[in-house]
Amino acid sequence: MGTGKSSVGVELAVKLGYRYLDLDCVITDHAGMSVNRIFAEHGELYFRDLETKAIEEIAYKENLVISTGGGAVIREKNRELLRSAGVVINLVASAEEIFFRLQTDCSRPLLKDDMSLEKIKKMFEEREPFYADSDIRIETVGKKVEDVVLEILLHLKGLM
Fold first, then answer.
1. Angle at the Cα of 24 (from 18 to 30), degrees rounded to 5?
2. Which helix (H) or strand (E) holds 5?
3. Where does the pLDDT of residue 18 fall: very low under 50, low under 70, confident under 90, or very high at 90 and above?
4. 122: nearest Cα among 145, 143, 99, 144
């Protein structure tokens, strides 16, 4: 979260001539409620089940750039689906940078009760093995969206 997935995803889709899909939007469209409301009324496990169903639905559609939430890769099934359907790209920022970027963002249900640097670091530590399994990892701190997109395109063309 807070690494620039949405901004980079939209721009990358434009450059590739693809459509852009935000997985959370697919989930909220199907559920008829916001991510925060899903978490509040049904809990994280229910949300993760909806997330898996949404990935199953869209993973094999062609010419898409899909932006997932940071927790989507926790489930092995999700990682397998995403990996078999295309290239998995992990945008990286330090916990300190994420904390700075999200200070005024109240839309993160997993940080609703504790928006601390320590909580973000703990989430990163827990998720790092899953993020490390990506095909491409790109640091976003100090880079413009256009620069991150160019770096992805170079990776995809095998130039990096």
1. 100
2. helix 5-16
3. very high
4. 99
Q: What is the dihedral of CA 139, 88, 109, 117, to 10 degrees?
A: -30
DSSP 3-state percent helix, strand, coil across the chain (nearest 5): 60, 10, 30
- 146/136 Cα distance (integer angstroms): 17
Tell me which architecture the domain covering 5-143 has in CATH. 3-Layer(aba) Sandwich (3.40)
What is residue 92's DSSP assignment?
Answer: E
Query: What pTM, to 2 d.p., does this model score?
Result: 0.85
The H or E element containing residue 76 is: helix 76-85
Beta bridge partners of 65: 20
Burial class (CB in 10 A: 0-12, 13-18, 19+), 8: buried
Closest CA to 5 of 157, 156, 152, 155: 152
Integer Cα distance of 119 and 31 in angstroms: 28
Look up tokens 């160019």; give the residue.
Answer: 150
What pLDDT sits at residue 110? 58
